[in-house]
Here is the input.
Amino acid sequence: MNHRVKQLLLSVPLLALGGCELNGTEPPYYQAAATLPDFRQPSFSEYVKETTDWLQVERYVVGADKAYEISVNAPREFRPHTPNGDGILLVHGLGDSPYSFVDIARHLSQQGYLVRTMLLPGHGSKVGDLQLASDTQWQESVAHQVSLLRQEVDNIWLGGYSTGANLVTSHALAHDEISGLILYSPAFKAQSKLLPLSEYAQYLVTWADRDPEHNRLRYESLPMKAAVSYYQTTKRVRSLLSAKPIYNKPVFMVISEGDNVIDKAYASDVFQQQFTHPNARLVWLGETPPDDPRAKAFSMKLPALRISEGSHMGALFAPDNREYGIAGRNRICSNGQPPVAEQACEAGADVWYSSYGYTEEGKIHARLTYNPYFAESMQLLAQVLRTMPSPPSGSSDGDPNKRSASTTRL
Here is the structure.
């Protein structure tokens, strides 16, 4: 989920009165395409091709390398050299792109999993296209990708980040054949108490926030309609969780204590009370983890790395990621700090790293965009994935086009 949902919905009444324009101009990335691409192709390869072709036309290029920008925003398959019979579908968050899972997907494919990332409708092109998408389309697109993945594997795991975590959890709760879940910063409930007002604000203003778009990998702005769509995903997943108070499948969850976007207490309670499988694991990036033997805490007070605390997005990326790692070229200075600090950050000043909105006297903070414990978290994820799932209902034993999962895992 885009941090703007929290930041801006705190000001919904002001937005309703005044709107939000950008110096009276209308940059092209605020315009919507005529239509969004179809996502119901009969194969994943056709889905990738047709989506990429659409991005070639509709992508607003913010840098000098159009081919690179399209490649990192397009859906992608990571096929293992030695398949273990399992498949994993990974779903990004609101305003983000499939690049969110590039490091995790590579790692999992090296362990034998057939991994796919998908592009949620309205994403990857230009932020104006988010006005055309809905939570229903997002949920249907996930369901279709699950059906395509099932053509090749017997066992399917679903992974999601933020809003994507809502979508995959909703699907898993309604489809018992899913083997388990991988959840990063699950946005089951927003920290902002005013999010429900977005349903009314959408009739008063088109944009919750409009900023210059300069990030190759994610949107900076947010249509109010997209905030409403996110809110609908929270209502759906919480309704399903209420209807199914025990989900006894393996779950891997990562929460940052510094995350000020999601309701961390709610997500933690869901893990402790409803995700009851003994092999479930909660990675807590912070100092005060919940009292659960399945939780593992990692301190995020790391002055040697100039890290003050974790962030909503930081758990996803490895320290050597070319965009978001320690030496990454994508520094996010829009971090809820005073303008003078943001300008110094953009000018290349030495910075510390934190979640959105964190400030500390005498320090400039950029967003923390990588996980200093990436390797350790991948080891814990491997423990969860080694849990043998029950045979999925409707599996095709003896189908020569499918590999059955063995009793041993890589």
In short: Residues 232 and 337 are 30 Å apart (CA to CA). The first strand starts at residue 76 and ends at 78. The chain has a mean pLDDT of 90.
